[in-house]
# Entry
Amino acid sequence: MNLEAYENQLEHGRHLAARSVRGRYAPSPTGPLHLGNIRTALLAWLQTRLAAGQFILRMEDLDQPRVKIGSAERILYELRWLGIDWDEGPNLGGPVGPYDQGSRNDFYHAALYELKREGRLFPCFCSRKDIAQAASAPHAPDSKALYPGTCRNTNAEEVELIRRQKGNRIPAWRYRVPNHVITFDDQVAGSISQVLHQEVGDFVVRRADNLFAYQLAVVIDDTLMGITDVVRGADLLASTPRQIELFNALGFRVPQFWHVPLLTNETGERLSKRDGAESIAALRDHGASPEHIVGQLAASVRLVPPGSRLSARELLEELDMETFRRKLVEALGKR
Ligand code: GLU
# Structure
């Protein structure tokens, strides 16, 4: 573990964030981008460019077993084809790289070390089945999400005992959630509150399969990369209070959040890579131009009238930050 590199990049990130707006798009290379992913990317890009900020592309290939070979390259290609450009990213480099999570384990280890040192984590040997069984008590409203606290108060001796009983299994590490409410003001969704210990419970920051959890990695990356504005899909709204808790615990500045509506199909369901939602490549093969796709996506949140055809740059020139934000608020409310 290299604590010095971590501290240096922390300082660098702080410095960058103080100087200008820095936004990002952070796709997971688990398959081809569909229109919904692209709309989020376009909105993130617009927010940064409207603020004359720097746009960062980060490849979230943390969950290696789910990564598809060639997917990252393809995502970069599709974004560029659509006219979305970035100032730092996996292919370009930049001052606070590397820009793919798979190469950032040292930073996550350092953060994990800090959290452990402050007594904010505990090892947990529970399997999913254990948790489901313990949590299916009638008072747990969302028993799937809530951790019942089984390993929260085990002392070092008990931990050793359990470890041996479980055949030296590697534990997951959970964050000990304090008993307080997290409230934040989302630029699009408005005021959001979550009582973490009731609605989420102690959450995993390092998984039993040795992978770092998204919740930890995203906080470290956004901070070390000096991100000031996080524009992403509203499906992540429920994760944000956990992340804010981690930002606070580590003494980091909390970025501004913009949770944008998800694109839905005609029956109101969100698009997903798994449903075989139309990929950009398929649309291109059917003759769609970037102007066509950008126009359609911008019209879907009423940034432009239906039927518009324009490049990402032209769209940018038509907008100002206040109109952009207002349209997103309206679009989210309409869902
Ligand atoms: N990698 C996540 C995704 O593709 C996005 C995470 C984030 O923006 O914080 O859904």
Notes: The beta strands are 22-25, 54-57, 121-124, 172-175, 181-186, 190-195, 203-206, 229-233, 256-260.
